[in-house]
Design a protein that fits this description.
The chain has 192 residues and is mainly alpha-helical. 43% of the residues lie in helices and 5% in strands. It has 7 helices and 4 strands, in the order βαβααβαβααα. A two-stranded parallel ribbon has the order 1-2. The relative contact order is 0.09.
């Protein structure tokens, strides 16, 4: 249409099939210049294209420079959630509380080697850090690598002992964070 019309094209997509962001980006590719979005994708029925998803996709995938401070997106999302009482799903892209959380041993080890293996953009773009959790899916390589970043060098055998304790504790209280694992590692090292 943009080739035949000498007018700006706007798009306003609903998320009934989970495609609002994809359809908005397709419209952008086809020449739409006014993209209707909403924070957290809020809108009638199943919602609309999410501001945070469309903005990140335009910036990261299409190289579009936006007059937007990405570091404020999570605070904006949280404020909208507070006002509306509609908290984003934890696995929601960009603003979900688990968007940059890794637990699986393979994922954690890979993220330490090359973050882009599992993160299409850096959490630093949003002003946050990734979250590493340890539990039933963790492996010794991830434990060794995570602790090495904090100056704690473990042998494979020590890492196995740490992993056994991590898995035991995870069954009781859920996934552990890095501070918990550091504490376990120090106990293993001291023979306690």
């Amino acid at each position: 249409l943009s080739k035949y019309l000498n007018k700006p094209i706007a798009v306003h997509c609903h998320n009934d099939f989970g495609l609002a962001t994809a359809n908005t980006l397709a419209a952008y590719e086809a020449g739409a210049t006014a993209l209707s979005v909403s924070v957290n994708g809020l809108g009638e029925r199943c919602g609309n294209a999410a501001l945070e998803e469309v903005a990140l996709a335009l910036y990261c995938l299409y190289g579009v420079e936006l007059d937007l401070d990405f570091k404020k997106l999570i605070k904006l999302s949280d404020k909208v959630a507070e006002i509306t009482g509609l908290k984003p799903w934890p696995l929601k892209p960009v603003v979900g509380s688990h968007a940059f959380t890794h637990e699986s041993g393979i994922h954690v080890a890979a993220v330490f080697e090359n973050p882009f293996t599992y993160e299409p953009y850096s959490p630093r773009l949003l002003g946050i850090d990734r979250s590493i959790k340890f539990g039933k899916h963790s492996g010794t390589k991830a434990i060794i690598r995570a602790l090495k970043n904090f100056g704690i060098e473990l042998s494979v055998e020590e890492a196995r002992k740490v992993l056994e304790e991590v898995k035991r504790l995870e069954r009781v209280r859920g996934c552990l964070d890095l501070d918990d694992v550091k504490e376990i590692a120090l106990k293993v090292r001291s023979g306690r």
